[in-house]
Design a protein that fits this description.
heterodimer; A: alpha+beta; four-stranded antiparallel sheet; 49% helix; B: mainly alpha; 14 helices
Chain lengths: 172, 392
């Protein structure tokens, strides 16, 4: 059972400064919750690039191939129709549907992947560290190393206090 | 950082004069080796129009960002202004081309003794006097607006008086509206009327989107060239990222319009319309597909990732490809109608005259850049454009 220690800042400049210090001390920062997007958090935390972009590209490619291939099969093998004298395998007529399926697959895959990677799918339990996170508090959530919990908790609390955070609480 | 003015080096001047020399030589050689008048006239029209459009788009980008109160664009504003310095030059060259035989060689609706039923129906618009009146109107309006936009931009920089900023914005707004209309009508006059038996209502915007993409590409090339010469140090990755996004988006927009025009004509299959693509598919099919590869497939796949747009490594080659690609796009708009499949090709006139025009364009661009400080220090958004950061 993972335990967290949360602490808050009152403004984003101190948040960024504090995050730098916490990162330097090697703390495992689980999450940073801010009421509005703060420039530079992902840089300070050295976060890796989102893999969502690769999902989007691959899903779009799959959508394009499926869309084009399915139309090609339908109109040449399965159910060829003479539509206004156009050839059975007519690339220009296949393009609109191909484009739409590219966008559709890409968008759906991104949304599903996003919710899956955030563990926010159906049935997810709300993980509310502090209700004021969407109001006027900038939260830092630090993971506790359960193998040496007591010592670790004291270390983390000390580090957070030094880094200027307030309202340090332990959550189960 | 002190405010730099561009200083033309001897090396650059030699390069530019060399290019212009190649152009004049190629023109002369083309005449001497017997290249047909139609093909030479078509090349002159192609290049004059292409670089005129670059000038118009340069000014358009300045105008549009000004009326949108864009903060970041201020730091690269001078490049767009410099591109617009070519507009009057293009006017003179185009007038000379039309007056000294070009009109007759290029446009079949000027062959008064051969007007058939369809051309006769269009004679109220497609006749030489009205053509020249419109020609004069386009260039008057473009040159006057370009002059005032540049004038107020410089006055604002010299004095810091905000009343010049207001005038700068008003003339920018007028120019955007004027260009929206005249870019279409001038494309009909100078390009679409080459195939006077045909028409397309998408044509004006198709040409505009082509020029928008290549104009952005040229702006990027000029910016990177200036940076490599040691100027524009204040321009950072964020600015370049934005220009890369524009190139990506405008190329996709162009492809969308290309496909819209093509698919509708293909699907309806009306002979009056399909005759246009018939000639292009029969005799220009390589160019037809190369056009799509250079102008859509390349920017679409090469500029997809975020980092590709943030530096010159990928952005510069792609910009050059788009610059060449839209020249080829314009080639297949003009050549099939004027010259036809058998006598056209990519040879001395095409390559040499284009080099000449590129040199001439660069001459006026660098001349304009050296006339004013590269950073508009007294522009209200000057500071904002220097501190341009984005979230992601």
């Amino acid at each position: 059972m993972n335990r967290y220690i949360t602490a808050y800042y009152l403004d984003e400049e101190n948040l960024l400064k504090g995050l730098g210090q916490l990162k330097a001390k090697g703390l495992k920062i689980r999450d940073v919750l801010t009421p509005f997007p703060v420039h530079g958090v992902d840089k300070v935390l050295n976060m890796r690039r989102s893999r969502l972009t690769r999902v989007a590209f691959l899903a779009g490619a799959v959508g394009a191939l499926l869309g084009f291939g399915f139309q090609a099969w339908i109109f040449t093998i399965d159910y060829p129709l003479n539509i206004g004298g156009k050839p059975f395998f007519s690339v220009p007529s296949f393009m609109p549907v191909t484009f739409e399926l590219t966008v559709l697959f890409s968008a759906f895959a991104m949304v599903i992947a996003f919710f899956m990677s955030n563990q926010l799918g159906p049935g997810a339990k709300a993980l509310i560290h502090d209700e004021r996170a969407t109001d006027d508090r900038f939260l830092v959530v630090v993971e506790v190393d359960d193998s040496r919990a007591e010592e670790n908790i004291r270390e983390i609390e000390l580090a957070l206090a030094e880094a200027g955070a307030e309202g340090i609480t332990i959550k189960a | 950082m002190e405010n730099q003015k561009f200083i033309q080096t001897k090396k650059l001047s030699t390069l530019i004069y060399g290019m212009i020399g190649v152009g004049i030589l190629s023109l002369a050689v083309s005449f001497l080796i017997g290249i047909g008048g139609e093909r030479i006239a078509a090349n002159l029209l192609l290049n004059t129009y292409y670089f005129l459009a670059l000038g118009l788009i340069g000014l358009f980008l300045v105008a549009v960002h000004t009326i949108a109160e864009s903060g970041w664009h201020t730091s690269i504003q001078r490049i767009g202004e410099a591109m617009s310095a070519f507009i009057p030059v293009a006017g003179i060259l185009m007038l000379l081309l039309f007056v000294f035989g070009g009109l007759h060689l290029l446009y079949e609706w000027t062959h008064e003794d051969h007007l058939d039923e369809i051309l006769l129906k269009k004679v109220a618009y497609l006749n030489a006097p009205f053509f020249y009146v419109r020609f004069a109107a386009y260039f008057t309006v473009w040159i006057v607006l370009a002059y005032f936009i540049r004038k107020y931009s410089l006055l604002l920089d010299q004095s810091g008086d905000l009343k010049y900023y207001r005038k700068f914005r008003i003339f920018s707004a007028v120019f955007v509206v004027v260009l929206a209309i005249t870019s279409s009508t001038s494309a009909w006059d100078w390009l679409m009327s080459i195939d006077a038996h045909w028409f397309s209502t998408l044509y004006g915007w198709y040409v505009f989107s082509s020029m928008l993409a290549s104009g952005t590409a040229v702006l990027i090339i000029l910016l990177i060239a200036l940076k490599r010469m040691g100027y524009m140090g204040h321009v950072n990755k964020e600015h370049i990222h934005d220009l890369g996004k524009y190139l990506f988006g405008f190329s996709i927009f162009w492809a969308y319009l290309w496909f819209s025009q093509y698919m509708l004509i293909w699907y309806a299959n009306i002979p009056e319309e399909t005759v246009y693509f018939y000639e292009r598919h029969k005799h220009f099919s390589t160019i037809f597909y190369v056009n799509l590869i250079l102008n859509f497939a390349t920017p679409f796949f090469a500029l997809m990732t975020r980092n590709s747009k943030r530096g010159a490594l990928i952005l510069l080659p792609v910009s050059v490809i788009v610059f060449v690609g839209h020249w080829i796009d314009l080639y297949q708009l003009i050549m099939p109608g004027v010259v036809g499949g058998e006598q056209s090709g990519i040879g001395i006139p095409e390559v040499g005259i284009t080099i000449g025009y590129t040199g001439l364009f660069l001459f006026f661009v660098f001349r304009s850049l050296s006339k004013a400080p590269l950073i508009p220090k007294n522009h209200p958004f000057y500071k904002e454009s220097l501190e341009y950061h984005t979230q992601y």
